[in-house]
Design a protein that fits this description.
- This protein is mainly α and about 130 residues long.
- It folds into two domains: about 1-50, no CATH class; about 55-125, Up-down Bundle (AhpD-like), CATH 1.20.1290.
- Helices cover about 80% and strands about 0% of the residues.
- The chain has helices at about 5-15, 20-25, 35-45, 55-70, 70-85, 90-100, 105-125.
């Protein structure tokens, strides 16, 4: 693997947690291995590894973009990741308020529902 892959895996584990990454790695097949390598190098090794903005800010941006695009499964995953990025519930709400204005109320409404469910699951596990 590349140096960018190694850096990406460090950041991916820091943001998403070892349990999530271990599951993804355990479920990896020959078919999706190139995709897993791509996201580890590109998303985590190239973008999330940059130090121009904080992990908290990057988390909020990611949540807003995922909500605005309707990527619900990824949205829940990144809301869970706020436990590792420092983004608070209030930060998530502010990001989703921006979604309402710039991407549409229905997208934000659905994302808020997902956020409430995800935060409740997170609190139940404490």
């Amino acid at each position: 693997m590349s140096e960018r892959f190694d850096q990406g895996m460090i950041v991916r584990r820091r943001v998403l947690g070892d349990a999530h990454v271990n599951r993804a790695e355990a479920n990896k097949t020959d078919f999706d291995e190139p995709f897993q390598t791509l996201i580890t190098e590109a998303a985590w090794g190239s973008v999330w590894s940059r130090d121009t903005i904080s992990p908290r800010e990057r988390s909020m941006l990611t949540i807003a973009l995922l909500a605005g695009l309707g990527n619900d499964h990824e949205l829940a995953m990144h809301i869970r990741a706020t436990a590792n990025t420092g983004a608070s519930k209030e930060d998530v709400l502010d990001a989703l308020l921006h979604v309402a204005i710039y991407a549409g109320v229905p997208r934000a409404n659905h994302a808020i529902k997902i956020a409430k469910e995800t935060f409740a699951e997170m609190e139940a596990k404490r």
